[in-house]
């Protein structure tokens, strides 16, 4: 069911517009850069502290803005459906504008850039296809609004079945938004993915910070519709979505009193539900009559009836409106009104159903297991289980709403380091396969793993004694420990344990002969 609301401007304490506002709070990451930089008074950080895979590269394209002059690329070979993630510290429950920027610059040696996926936490965000923009010499950006569920958020790029060269990224931005922005959205269930944001009747450069307090991009839209633009001196003090005042200085309107049709967004849209916000403000003389009033239809379906537009301004928004294909917005003056309608700006977001999250304690435990390895799999960042097709290498997860890690299979992965005791915190594990690696140290106490059925640690360099607690795991039916450096006694509760397939020799140095 579509939900439609009308919000009038409310008065706020005025701020002197001659003063430059404080830069938006957040983290700006210059991907592939090795040193920090300051661009237009805002600091960009090198990306090494946020990502642990990929290769930084310098572009040779002339006259690039600094942020586009480097990229980080990620290897395609052997990594189909593996994700490479930036992990960024955030404020829990903070609402963030996340923007990714891509400029190919020929880094892969092919004429066209690769097409690949981008992911936020456990949610598939979008396909990244920069081919058309790059063909016109432009960068591409993607923008979304998401609420942080924890103390970090991850943004990942990932090769899919039609990626033909290494995925890459140029810049990543996290901007903390005010609580009132887009607050009709249930961010516990949904994210917003920007489809279009335009200032109508405007032909200048993109409107952004400092005009927009949160550095949102308002693109010009003055050449695509057979209407005229007029400069208006409208007094606007603030909306819940806090649009910049500059978008109300121009408008699309008509010289005739009849309906006006606006074909926007320009692209054909997939069948989905969308958040739509349309902005209006009028400064015509209302002393001789009522305010401007008109009806709004989208694809010939009434969107709002008898909208009254005054100098105070108004925004009409729908938090879930179905769209598919091309979109036509019709603004029809009310009966008896002899002036044409107008529109100043608009935003459209695709409503993304969030993909969920792996249980937090499992994520923490896996991160600590990862820290015990000297060379963990390169895709062990971001959400371990989600999206499903992009789960971590060797990690198998449960179905259903409560996502748990149920098995680890890292056989013959060339792992070195030690097996962290925190693996015992993955209490849903039924199987662990870590055979044929170079793991050293002792076998930790795994008795909390009450569901564990299979444990393969053979062909490593593990030392110390076999923990007697292994014999107390009632579900254990297969235990392979051969070809390590284990010593001491074989626990009695393992010898002759009913239903247990036990393989502990050759290759260990027990004090008494193991069972035959």
UniProtKB/TrEMBL annotation:
Keywords linked to the UniProt accession: Leucine-rich repeat, Membrane, Repeat, Signal, Transmembrane, Transmembrane helix
Main subcellular location: membrane
Q: What is one GO cellular-component annotation here?
A: membrane
Looking up Gene3D superfamilies in the UniProt record yields:
Ribonuclease Inhibitor (3.80.10.10)
What does the record say about its membrane topology?
Single-pass membrane protein
SUPFAM superfamilies noted in UniProt = L domain-like
Pfam families according to UniProt: LRR_1, LRRNT_2, Malectin_like
Subcellular location(s): the record lists: Membrane
Residue ranges occupied by any Leucine-rich repeat-containing N-terminal plant-type domain in the UniProt entry: 361-398
Domain of life, per UniProt, equals Eukaryota
Which first-to-last residue range defines the signal peptide?
A: 1-18
User: Which part of the chain is the Malectin-like domain?
Assistant: 29-350
Q: Which InterPro entries does the record cross-reference, listed alphabetically?
A: Leu-rich_rpt (IPR001611), LRR_dom_sf (IPR032675), LRR_N_plant-typ (IPR013210), Malectin-like_Carb-bd_dom (IPR024788)
PANTHER family to which the protein is assigned, alphabetical:
OS05G0393100 PROTEIN, OS07G0107800 PROTEIN-RELATED
Question: What protein does this entry describe?
Answer: Malectin-like domain-containing protein
């Amino acid at each position: 069911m579509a939900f439609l609301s009308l919000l009038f401007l409310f008065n706020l304490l005025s701020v002197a517009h001659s003063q430059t506002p404080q830069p938006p709070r957040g983290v700006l990451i210059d991907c592939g850069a090795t040193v920090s930089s300051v661009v237009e008074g805002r600091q960009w950080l090198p990306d090494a502290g946020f990502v642990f895979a990929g290769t930084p590269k310098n572009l040779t394209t002339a006259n690039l803005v600094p942020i586009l002059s480097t990229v980080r690329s990620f290897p395609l070979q052997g990594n189909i459906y593996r994700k490479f993630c930036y992990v960024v510290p955030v404020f829990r429950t903070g609402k963030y504008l996340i923007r990714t920027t891509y400029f190919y610059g020929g880094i892969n040696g092919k004429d066209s850039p690769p097409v690949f996926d981008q992911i936020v936490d456990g949610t598939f965000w979008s396909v990244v296809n920069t081919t058309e923009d790059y063909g016109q010499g432009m960068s591409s950006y993607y923008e979304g609004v998401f609420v942080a569920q924890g103390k970090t958020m991850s943004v990942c790029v990932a090769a899919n079945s039609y990626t033909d060269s290494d995925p890459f990224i140029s810049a990543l931005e996290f901007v903390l938004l005010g609580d009132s922005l887009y607050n009709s959205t249930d961010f516990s269930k949904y994210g917003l993915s920007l489809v279009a944001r335009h200032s109508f009747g405007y032909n200048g450069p993109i409107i952004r910070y400092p005009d927009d307090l949160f550095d949102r991009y308002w693109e010009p839209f003055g050449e695509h519709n057979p209407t005229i633009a007029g400069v208006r001196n409208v007094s606007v003090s603030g909306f819940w979505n806090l649009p910049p005042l500059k978008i109300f200085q121009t408008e699309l309107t008509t010289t005739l009193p009849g309906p006006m049709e606006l074909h926007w967004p320009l692209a054909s849209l997939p069948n989905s539900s969308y958040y739509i916000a349309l902005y209006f403000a009028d400064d015509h003389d209302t002393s001789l009559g009522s305010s401007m009033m008109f009806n709004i239809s989208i694809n010939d379906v009434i969107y709002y009836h008898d909208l009254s537009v005054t100098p105070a301004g108004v925004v009409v928004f729908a938090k879930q409106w179905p769209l598919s294909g091309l979109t036509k917005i019709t603004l029809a003056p009310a009966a008896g009104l002899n002036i044409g309608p107008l529109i100043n700006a608009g935003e459209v977001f695709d409503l993304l159903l969030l993909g969920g999250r792996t249980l937090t304690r499992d994520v923490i435990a896996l991160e600590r297991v990862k820290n015990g390895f000297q060379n963990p799999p390169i895709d062990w960042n971001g959400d371990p289980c989600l999206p499903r097709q992009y789960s971590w290498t060797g990690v198998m997860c449960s179905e259903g709403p409560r996502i748990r890690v149920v098995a680890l299979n890292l056989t013959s992965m060339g792992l070195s380091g030690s097996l962290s005791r925190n693996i015992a915190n993955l209490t849903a594990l039924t199987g662990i396969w870590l055979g044929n690696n170079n793991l050293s140290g002792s076998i930790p106490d795994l008795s909390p793993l009450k569901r564990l059925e299979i444990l393969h640690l053979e062909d490593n360099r593990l030392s110390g004694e076999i923990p007697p607690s292994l014999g107390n795991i009632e579900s254990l039916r297969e235990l392979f420990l051969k070809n390590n450096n284990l010593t001491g006694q074989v626990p009695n509760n393992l010898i002759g344990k009913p239903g247990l397939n036990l393989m502990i020799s050759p290759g260990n140095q027990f004090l008494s002969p193991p069972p035959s």
